[in-house]
From TrEMBL:
UniProt keywords, alphabetically: DNA-binding, Phosphoprotein, Transcription, Transcription regulation
Top-level lineage group: Bacteria
Alphabetical GO biological process terms: phosphorelay signal transduction system; regulation of DNA-templated transcription
Domain called HTH luxR-type: residue spans: 146-211
Protein name as annotated: LuxR family transcriptional regulator
Residues recorded as bearing 4-aspartylphosphate in the entry: D55
InterPro entries xref list: CheY-like_superfamily, NreC/VraR/RcsB-like_REC, Sig_transdc_resp-reg_C-effctor, Sig_transdc_resp-reg_receiver, Tscrpt_reg_LuxR_C, WalR-like
Lineage: Bacteria, Bacillati, Actinomycetota, Actinomycetes, Pseudonocardiales
Pfam (any one): Response_reg
Record carries keyword Phosphoprotein: yes
TM regions (residue ranges): none
Length: 217
């Protein structure tokens, strides 16, 4: 089944460039475009995409607010991939907190864009973990502390969360803990459920906010 993609950017040339490369893929269908966040919210409801490519800085409504509204709509089953020209941008940190699956720099190679769409559509996040960890570390360090939920996690689940925060996949977590991959997947799912997060992006934010990992670790 094709992955349905909505492209949101205030620059026409950017939208056209992204459309051209994505539409050329046999497993991806571009179902719509929008030039601001407000139109993106309407388009998401109308076009029912699987993935929204969302620019951060736009007129009328920015990408953060648009992502928040789209991801808060229970009628939508969609993932948001933020696009930015900045490798450190507090808007993107905010987007991760509201549930975006990750972010991609606009100057990344176009093949990275295609791969990111596929990864996010498959239910994963943080396709550029080193960059995302740096961003989250930068801004988590500036946020006020929040009540820790670490006491809800078992010792093994805390180990799993630390590895998730380092950007490891389920198979890499399994290798690190010397367990089978299915067990690692189960641990990750339980961590997400206990913390009330939807994916690895939010889990990493939670790990920094709770002090389970710290910037520069």
């Amino acid at each position: 089944m094709d992955t349905r993609v909505l492209i949101v950017d205030d620059q026409t040339m950017v939208r056209q460039s992204f459309r051209a490369v994505l539409a050329a893929q046999p497993d991806i269908t571009v179902v719509g475009e929008a030039s601001n966040g407000a139109d993106a919210v309407h388009a998401a409801i109308r076009d029912r995409p699987d993935v929204v490519l969302m620019d951060v800085r736009m007129p009328i409504m920015d990408g953060l607010e648009a992502a928040r509204q789209i991801l808060a709509d229970p009628s939508l089953d969609v993932r948001v991939l933020m696009l930015t020209t900045f490798d450190i941008d507090e808007y993107v940190y905010g987007a991760l907190r509201v549930g975006a699956s990750g972010f991609l720099l606009k100057d990344a190679p176009l093949e990275d864009l295609v791969n990111a769409v596929r990864v996010v559509a498959a239910g994963n996040a943080l396709y550029a973990p080193a960059v995302t960890r740096r961003l989250v570390a930068e801004f988590a360090a500036r946020k006020p502390s929040v009540p820790s939920r670490a006491d809800q996690l078992t010792a093994q689940e805390l180990k799993v969360l630390r590895l998730v925060a380092r950007g490891l996949s389920n198979s890499e977590i399994a290798s690190a803990l010397v367990i089978v991959e299915q067990t690692a997947k189960t641990h990750v799912s339980r961590v997400f459920a206990k913390l009330g997060v939807r994916d690895r992006a939010q889990a990493i934010v939670a790990a920094y906010e709770m002090g389970i990992v710290v910037p520069g670790e």
